[in-house]
Protein 1
Amino acid sequence: MSAYKIPESVLVVIHTPALEVLLLERADAPGFWQSVTGSKDFAGEQWAATARREVGEETGIRGGELVDWALENVYEIYPRWAARYAPGVTHNRERVFGLCVAEGTPVQLAPREHLRWQWLPWAAAADACFSPSNAEAILQLPHRAGAAPPAQSPVQPPARPSSRQP
């Protein structure tokens, strides 16, 4: 196994049927909240296997309905993490998944990777993410999960004065 990370990773948006999203605070960057992410362990590892493995390692979650969103992002690796990759590697390819779990699913963090976890409504979770690609993925959740975003209260037109004469 190489000492360097493979520049192919997964992003797994873990959510409940009510579209509450699980976010994790990074141990190596306190204040940085994100969904589950992680690189392939070896070049031939299947995307779904990587997603399941990373979810299990980072959260202890073993069940749920995993859906490949067939969405890939390519982004420049943050300078603070560039040394984890082979010299000359500047970009990472990320495959996005959704994982629907039951409300109240227990979470057990890997303390070397994450400090805290929280469940947030999908829009608030997107706002809390430090990564633009993570925020964009969460914003797609209502569509990807087959649910419409919560409706705004309808605006009632002003009442019209009665045209009847007394």
Protein 2
Amino acid sequence: MAAIKSVMVGTTRVDPPEIVGGCRIITLPKIADVRGNLSYVEGGRHIPFAIRRAYWIYDVPGGALRGGHAYHKLEEFIIAASGSFDVVVDDGMERQVVQLNRSYLGLYVPSMVWRQIENFSSNSVTLILGSLPYSEEDYLRDYEAFARARHEGRK
């Protein structure tokens, strides 16, 4: 597997080119207001799928990892609603680490991309929007099986 490449996401590097496996950063609308900023997302408009599920991860203990799987069909959009964390994305051939730390930026992760979330800051909240309802059958939880399926899909 190739070395990990980092893509920093923040005020200086926004909307980088495509990331491993077709992942990409998407900038959401940001309405600046002295009372507090507002951002929003609409499925099919800002992200390339209709939103069928939303869930969030919070109160993550120091050093804990989340994810560590891929999906056969599900697409996701991952947002750092608060705080920061790293998303490791892997297409079976190459890996990249994407740091999310702005609530108006999100990472689109298509199906058949392995993802793991790590390095959570204190009080971070990870908001994940999904293209499908929950289905245990859609998960690929074994990395080697994922890599084989991904390789077979390239033929």
Protein 3
Amino acid sequence: MSQSGEVRYDFRRNGGQGPMQLTYYFWVISDWAYFGGPRLESIARRHGVAVDFRPVRLLEVYKRTGGIPLGQRSPQRQAERVWELRRWRARLGMACNIEPKHFPVNDEPASCLLLAGKRRGLDLHGLAQATMQAMWADDADISDPATLRELATRFVSDPEALLAEAKANEIVAEYDRYTDQAPADGVFGSPFYLFDGEPFWGQDRLDFLEEAIVRAKGHKVALGRG
């Protein structure tokens, strides 16, 4: 992190030989994070960028950054959100229930499942997207242990152990730590991407994020570290 508080990738780290990294703050029940997930994975794999997944309690972030929860927004803003969801659903060709059966729900169990998976080194692109798809496309309750068990089964051979790990105090503390750190890193919404000191808010900024990565890769190659 720079002196200004920015999260910045240091090309000198590990002699410039390590992968570039971006920090990804998101709310596990975020519709926009769900829409952005496949393209984030594609960008990361295409350019060899490591993604640091940081789920947060977004309502807590809102309290510290002036955000307004969906149910407290004006009817006009809520109506526009529905139009935007329809537009992006059509453009991306992704299934999405505009009013999912289980929303909102307690985000802690699913978020902590992801963090337990992170500690194991699991593919969080897959697990995170499967979790959000369960809510936004499959009408599943991702606060229900049965739902989380079924999701975990797709990625590990010992789902019960992973569910138990997700309840550990240190995992919950990590979740709280990311929530506390998010406003300090300039985060105020979901999804929120940080790369090389530059913030990108929203899945509709992913093109700009990829452009920044391409510029950074060019700089790294120019310095003989590619």
